[in-house]
Task: structure prediction
Amino acid sequence: MARILFILTTFVSLAATGLCMNNGQQNNHPNFQIPPPATLATSTKGAQPTKGVSPNNSTTNGTTSPPKKYTHFDCGTNANHASDHFMSTVSDLHSEQGPKGAPGARERSLLPKRDFSANIDTYFHVITKSDSAGTITKDMATKQISAMNSAYSPVGLTFTLKDTDFTVNDAWAVGAGSDDANMKTALRKGGYAALNIYFQTDLDGSILGNCALPTNITDPLSYIIDGCNVNAGTMPGGQIQGYDQGMTAAHETGHWLGLLHTFEGYACDGDGDFIADTPMESVSTDGCPTSPTKDSCPNQPGDDPIHNFMDYSTDACYTGFTDGQIARIQTMWGQYRQGK
Result:
């Protein structure tokens, strides 16, 4: 997905050891106390807006600007930010697909369960600044959940939108520093199996989104900030050109369900995203380069998976997941979130 990975800040330990910030630093949240071990990592995707467009989509003289255009993309998070438990799990699952497995194990492990089904309670939290109140509507939320259900139908997942709440809070609409934890402490609903997405009109760092990876948790307090932050302009009908069909939320939900980026590691060798049937990819995708095809690892099988939800392509470029990714989601759901 043509969007940057940024590490936002250091939170409680859910799925990683830290949050990426666009300046490479990490901050603690002094107003949010959680029992140790104490770090939560999120995967983020974002971009730098073009010059002349401010984070609130207004020009410096206060007039409304054209829709935002995101033109520069780069990376800031990798598997090193995931929790030890998460990495142990994906490594074990990946090794089952490799040469150490019994004959045919690789192929069998890539086959999704065709009778798999799960219904995920989903909560949307729309947070705007006072000057943008009312710009994000319930109709946009309805179209967003529909886009997510369309994307995940082949997986066997259904997202049931239980509630959409609207909050006007200038600080929370940005979510910088401790404001993010304070917002989630106040708004989060449901257990660890409930997906909470925070659609913020002015999301910190000029990013499009970030989301927590799953990990083993036992204390409800330890996952209060679990969930996804998504730039509200990426909802269907939003103001970010190329990313206004709701696919940023679909991408971030992939992280929440246990997937890494297809370009994980930015290399043509190694484990990549720990899934055998996604081609090696050393460069994240900008836009939707179909002619000529994008092949950042020409000595490896397959072109780059630009149509995969876990790349950084534009919304219209996405078409789905591989069988291996679908099987991974199903496995990770059962291990980490189902019934919790």
